[in-house]
């Protein structure tokens, strides 16, 4: 298989792994098998997948409260993520972090984050460290549309522009911040236009088109590695589930069933599968095989999590950092 086709199939698999992992979480949460809050990424898989496909293993990402997709796309193992959500010691943070705090420095994952906008200064710091160490790494910094009205967004973009830091700022514009539609909170429709305020590159793509996201992220990564500074990449997308798992009762107070169904019809994974079939790059059996393998991977991850021990009470304060 040529490398381009291999990459496409890999991207399909990554999107499906994110989708199936989270569909399983819906079920587990409804049965109260896992503690803590869950913000699901279902419907937005093409954004993390396209961006991370343009990164190298030693590049960094910063993530958000809706971070499972970023983690999987950057190389996170589903079994260790599942164990983390089950609160077991085999999880990425020894079961003490949970959904909103998964981090792994070996994979360049500088952390999911429960504080909206808090990944942006971290990405700036990582970008500055890359510059000072003189490597050609880049940082992909993911955040939502709501986060772009935080002071941290403006402060970070200003400094990254001034110091030409190798950071790709990715706004995952799913059009809502909890129940607040973007047009009720943000003075402009297209967030990427804020590039002009900082004199940096920026563009907007269909965040549900994985190839469009990939190509835009590749351009941004190339510029960053060449010392040309940051890019603001806006990906228009949509979350299918509530803001958090369990929101169901409130969903239809701020968006309609028709709106949600309309976006589901444009499912990023189905769209990509159909495109690959049309290109005659693959046959349906290729997708069937991947579906089966992903299903098995998720089942094994649950077994791994359930078979893993909980942390000991006397270890409660180990592995914690305070500044
Ligand atoms: C500093 C801060 N303010 C408020 C919150 C509560 N909060 C959690 S998620 C969220 C909305 C974030 O919206 P957006 O950035 O668009 O991300 P999305 O949830 O849509 O992915 C808010 C206000 C928080 N966690 N941190
Ligand atoms: Mg949002």
Offer a few descriptive terms.
single chain; 323 residues; alpha/beta; Rossmann fold; 5-stranded parallel β-sheet; two-stranded antiparallel sheet; 7 strands; 10% strand; binds thiamine diphosphate; binds magnesium ion
Topology:
Elements: H1 3-30, H2 45-53, E1 60-62, H3 68-73, H4 78-85, H5 119-133, E2 139-144, H6 151-162, E3 167-173, E4 176-177, E5 180-181, H7 195-198, E6 201-206, H8 210-225, E7 231-236, H9 251-254, H10 257-265, H11 268-278, H12 284-307
Parallel strand pairs: 1-2, 2-3, 3-7, 6-7
Antiparallel strand pairs: 4-5
Helix pairs in contact: 1-2, 1-11, 1-12, 2-8, 4-12, 5-6
The structure holds thiamine diphosphate and magnesium ion.
Description:
- The chain is 45% helix and 10% strand.
- With 323 residues, the protein is α/β, with parallel strands linked by helices.
- It has one domain: Rossmann fold.
- The strands form two sheets. The protein has a five-stranded parallel sheet, sandwiched between helices. Strands 4-5 form a two-stranded antiparallel sheet.
- Helix 2 (45-53) runs parallel beside helix 8.
- It is globular and about 50 Å long.
- The model has no long low-confidence stretch (mean pLDDT 96).
- The structure holds thiamine diphosphate and magnesium ion.
- The site of magnesium ion has 6 residues, from strand 4.
